[in-house]
Amino acid sequence: MANVTVSEAMIRKAGNGLALSKIKSLNLSDKDLTHLDPTVMNKLVTLTTLDLSNNNICSIPDNLLLPSLTTLDISDNELSSVSFGKNFPQLTSLYIAGNHDLGKSDRLVAMVENSNLTHIDDQRSSSLSQVVRQIRSKFEIQVKAKWEVLFAEPYATGIPEEEVDKVTEEFIVTLRGDGLLKNADSKFEKYMLEKLAKEMVESAKNMSIYKSTHSLPGTPRSARLNDLHSPETTPVRQSSRTPVPNRRLMDTPPLKPPTPRSGVPNADCSKTPDKTPKAEGKGKKRRRDSSPGSVSKPRAKSFRTETGQLSSPKFSPKSPASNKKTQDRGRKRRRSLTPESECKHKTKSYKTQTGHLSSPKYTSLKELHIDQLPPVPDYDPTYFVRCHSDEDGPSDDNTKVWRCAFEPKPNCPGEHTNLVATVGGKIVCLVDCQTGKVMRRFKDTDKKESFYTLAWTTISVDKDNSSETTNILAVAGDACDVKLIHPSQLVMYATLEGHRRYISCLVFHPTYSTILFSGGKDNRIIMWDIGIPNLSDYSTNFRKLKCLVTPGTDPLNLALSMSTNSLLAGCESTCYLWKLQDMQKVSKEPDLELCLPITDDNSDTSSDDSKTGDIVDGLVLLSDNFVVTKCVGNSCLTVFDLKSCIPMKKPSRQTRSIKVTPTALLNYTRTTVDYIYLAASQGLVAAGDDKGSIHLYNLNQFLGEKPISCDTTLQQSKVLDWPEVTLGRHTDSMKDLLTEQAVVINSIAMNHSKDYMVCGTDNNLVCIWKRSTVKT
Description:
- The protein is of the alpha+beta class.
- It is built from nine helices and 37 strands.
- The longest helix is centred in the first third of the chain and has 26 residues, at 125-150.
C-alpha cells in the first residue's frame, strides 16, 4: 500500500480554500491516508471538527496537537491505540468504531486519557465512567498495599527525579511477578494497573502518598493485603466468546451517529428520529429470531436415525392445498430484538440537483394484459427436514430458516454439488439433497448469534497450483460478525468484525474469489479480502478493503454484475448501485439510485409521501444484464435491463437517481409479508410466498428475444402448492405441520441443472423438491 500523507494543498482544497489557521471544520474521509504530518496539521489552531474516517491511518503522532478540537471521527482506520486523547484537551466527541484492533477496552482507555469526553461512538461517557470507577477501585487498594509492604520504607524520604523511571519499572515488574497483572482479565485492567503503579510512584516522589488517609490506624499492612477481593469492588465478568485461531480480536463496534460537519458538537447524535408508522394492522414486521412469546415445549424424542444423522418426516405426493388462512397473515417480520417495535416507513435520503425524487408509478394491474410463460418441469416434494432446532427437537416450529445455497463444485465454475447449506437460529447445516440427510451441522456458541445469511466461494489454496481448490462458506447474522467456515472439516476458522448492527446479506465476487461484500443494519456494505487460509492450522490474513454506505436504509440483498462491473443492493426503501471498474477507487456513496416502479397503486407499502420507498426484499440476476426484483406489497415481480439503466456519462460524486423502466412484469401474489427472497438459475426464476407456494417463471426465451412491453404481465409457468403431510411416528412431536396455519417460504435455492430446489421456511423446515421424471 502506497504511503499517502496529509498535505497543505489537500487541506486547503477540503477547507474551501481557507487559510489553515481559519478552518474550523475539515472532512478528510476516503482519502486513502496512511500518515498525518504534524508540521502541517498543527497549523489548524481553530479546528473544532475533524473527519478522518475510512482511511488507512495506523497511528496519530504524539506531537500532533489541536488545542481547539472538540469532535474527532477516526473510525474505519487501522488504529491500535487511543493514547492520542491527551493531545486534544478540548475533545468531547470521539468516533473510533471500525478499527479492527480497538474494542471496548480502548474506549475505556480513551475515557481515562481525556476526561472531557462526553461521547465515544454512540455511548455516553457516563456509562463508561462507571466501568472505569469500578475497575479502578478493584485494583487501587491492592496497588497501594503492595507499595506499602515492599517500597514505602526504601523511599520514605521521596524519590529523586532521575530514579523515577527506574523505580516505576521495578514496581511494575513486582506487580507482574506477584501475579497481580496476570489476574487482570482485560486489556483495560492491565492498562489501569500500570497507570496506578505510575501514579503511586509519582505520589511517592513528591511525598503526597504519606498525606493521604487511605491507611487505617492500627491495622497492619500485611492484614490489609489479605482482604482485597470484596464483593462490592469486584465487578462480575461477562462470558466471552470462544477464541478463534489467528483471530483479530476486537469488540463489536457500536452504531456510529453521523459526524457533525459544521463544527458544532452534536450533543444528541445517538438518537435516531422516529419514522412514520404504517397503517394500523399492517405495521408489524416479521421477527428475525424465534417468537418471544411462544410457549416452551417439552423436549421430544431425539429424532435421529440409527446412523446418528437427523432424519426427516416423509411427505405424501403434493396435492392442491386448501385455502389456508392464519391470523398472522399480513403481519410483518422483524429482524430486531424488540417484539413491540413496529415497522416504520423508511425515508429516502438521496437528493438530486432538483431535490427529492419519488419513485415513478406505473399503471394499475387492472389495465395490463396477461400472457402465459413457457411451461417448466414439475417438481415433487422429496424430503422436508427439521434440522435447525436448538436442542435437536422436532417440535421446534419457531426457528426460521432464512437462507439456503448450493455448494459450488470445485474446478467446475457454475456447477454445484448435491450439498446445500442452510442457516437458521445458531445453526448451519449441510444437507444432501439425494438422501435428505444432514451431513454436517455447525452450532455457534455465541449467545447473541442468529444466522440470517450465507455465501459460498471456491478459492485456490496453493498459489503455485491453481487446480488445488477448496470451498469456503461465509455466514453472518445477529452477532454482527462474518464467520468463515471450512465445510469439509466443519471448522469456523476466522471472524470478520466490522459491522455495528446485524448482517443481512453476503456475496462473493465472481472473479476475485476472496473478495466478499457484507451488508448490514448499520447502513453499510463492507468489502473484505478474506485471504487464503493455511489448511494445516487454519491461520489466515484477512482485511477490510472498503466501507460503502447505503444512505438512510439498510441492504437486504447484494448482487454483482460482471458485464456492467457493478454492485447492486436491494434495500429497505430503495435500490443502490456502485460502479466497480477500479476496485481500489470504489465510491463510498452509491453512484446510482435505481427508482423501481410501483406496479400496484393500492400497494400497502405505497404512500402519499413522495419520499417513501418500497422494501426491495428480492433481488437476483437472471443473467449478467437482466435483474429481477420483488417489493413488499407489489403483486408483480419486475424485470429490467441493467445495462440500459446505467448512463454512459461518467457518474459524479453525488448519487444520481435513475428511473427504471421494466422490460417485463411477472405475475406474483400480493402479500405484506417481508423478507421473502428470490432465486434464479439458468433462466428459471423462483419465488416463495406466505401460503407455502412456490412460483416458477421460465424466462429462457425472454432472454434471447426482443424485450416484452411492460404493459403485459407474464403469468407464472407453474405454481407448486404446499403438499399434504404424513408424519407417521412423528405425529405427536410435529403436529404443527397438520394445522391449517400457512407456511412462509423465506428463501429458495436451485442447483445449476435445476434438478433440485431447496426452500427454507418460517416453521423450521428445509424443503427439498426434486424435478419430476414424469412428463406433464
